[in-house]
Amino acid sequence: MAHLYHVDTSKLFDLAVRNGVAFIPGRAFSVSGQFGNALRLCLASQTPERTELGISRPAEGLKAF
């Protein structure tokens, strides 16, 4: 799980989806609502090129956020 300090990943989700990347916001992994600054990308079945794209798109989105 990646931690993005000072970023609420549930607010970043819509922006990421509009840019063609989906992830699970960190709060989905906590019964107490923790990990709001974390996210999980699943890249296990992707090619190296798609993995790079799947990582770079959220990074670009963060710059715009």
Helix/strand layout:
Blueprint: E1 2-3, H1 9-18, E2 24-25, E3 38-40, H2 48-64
Antiparallel strand pairs: 1-3, 2-3
Put the structure in a nutshell.
Helices cover 42% and strands 11% of the residues. It is built from two helices and three strands; from the N terminus they run E-H-E-E-H.
Task: Report what the structure shows.
The protein has 65 residues and is α+β, with helices and mostly antiparallel strands. It has 2 helices and 3 strands; from the N terminus they run βαββα. It has helices spanning 9-18, 48-64; strands spanning 2-3, 24-25, 38-40. A 3-stranded antiparallel sheet has the order 1-3-2. The radius of gyration is 12 Å and the shape is globular. The mean pLDDT is 82.
**What profile does the largest beta sheet have?**
3 strands, antiparallel
Query: How widely separated are the two ends?
Result: 20 Å
Category by helix and strand content: alpha+beta
Q: How many β-strand stretches?
A: 3
Radius of gyration: 12 Å
What is the mean predicted local confidence, pLDDT?
82
Q: What low-confidence regions span 5 or more consecutive residues with pLDDT below 50?
A: none
Query: Strand order of the main beta sheet, please?
Result: 1-3-2
- Note the overall shape: globular
Secondary structure tally, helices: 2
SSE pattern: EHEEH
Q: Bin the helical content.
A: 40-55%
Content of β-strand: 5-15%
